[in-house]
Write a structure and sequence with these properties.
This protein is α+β, with helices and mostly antiparallel strands and 239 residues long. The protein has six helices and eleven strands. A hairpin with a 2-residue loop joins strand 7 and strand 8 (162-168).
Length: 239
């Protein structure tokens, strides 16, 4: 077996697209249906990523591409924009090998590897901030029918079977809705929720300083709960 990690070439674009679109099926049931479509990423969208400065590295065995990672240098940091492993090749550590290679590049280039902006690796779960989870539980309205569910590798709080807030690492996920989306993005410490490979309109990431005070956290909960109450009731799932 010959294994290699190397920069992807233009001739590998069809193979990269195949891996991305195959791996994206793992989001079914975890990401709202309106955020998923076929194909998940088109040739034009991938080319736009490359033209924007995202460089793809691939993990191959015996000449077959099994996983890809897209990275982008922004000032003195390197962002991991994409990380995908084909479904048939998961649970073999290929995503970890790509990440380790990026860490090695970080050490030798002097840049800081910041974080996953868009992540879909090998089904590995991401820890979430238990302290933030407890803060959310304490401020949730009583008798609101709120349940907790593991989603996205983090923790989601659900109302009427819709996620309205959640936690990914130390970051708050907030479903503010399309109408409040632009205004939310103008707030400090708020950014696009783009870990699926594209911004999810109506959802934002809020960094810890954006909800440092309980009143700020409560405000996010209030706004998001208000939005999901406007959504139609979901049909019961067939057993």
């Amino acid at each position: 077996m010959i294994a290699a990690i190397s920069p992807s070439t233009a001739s590998q674009i069809p193979a990269i697209l195949a891996i991305v679109n195959d791996a994206a099926h793992a989001y079914r049931g975890h990401v709202p249906d309106d955020c998923l479509h076929e194909p998940y990423m088109s040739h034009a969208e991938l080319q736009h990523e490359i033209d924007s400065g995202v460089r793809f590295w691939g993990y191959s065995e015996n000449g077959s591409l099994l996983g890809v990672m897209g990275i982008q240098d922004v000032q003195d940091v390197t962002l991991i924009r994409h990380a995908y492993v084909s479904t048939r090749s998961r649970r073999h550590g290929f995503g970890s090998k790509l990440l380790a290679h990026s860490r090695w590049r970080e050490l030798h280039s002097g840049t800081k590897l910041l974080s996953f902006s868009r992540q879909l690796t090998e089904g590995n779960s991401m820890a979430y901030d238990e302290g933030l989870a407890e803060r959310l539980r304490e401020i949730m309205p009583a008798h609101a029918g709120i349940i907790e569910k593991k989603l996205f590798g983090g923790l989601a709080f659900m109302s009427r079977d819709y996620m309205f807030v959640g936690i990914l690492g130390e970051t708050l996920m907030a479903r503010v809705g399309p109408e409040a989306y632009a205004e939310a993005l103008r707030r400090p410490q708020v950014r696009e929720m783009d870990f699926t490979g594209r911004p999810m309109k109506g959802y934002v990431f809020v960094d810890p300083l954006g909800f440092e005070e309980d009143r700020d956290l409560a405000r996010w909960v209030e706004v998001c709960l208000k939005f999901v109450k406007t959504l139609p009731a979901k049909k019961p799932k067939l057993k």
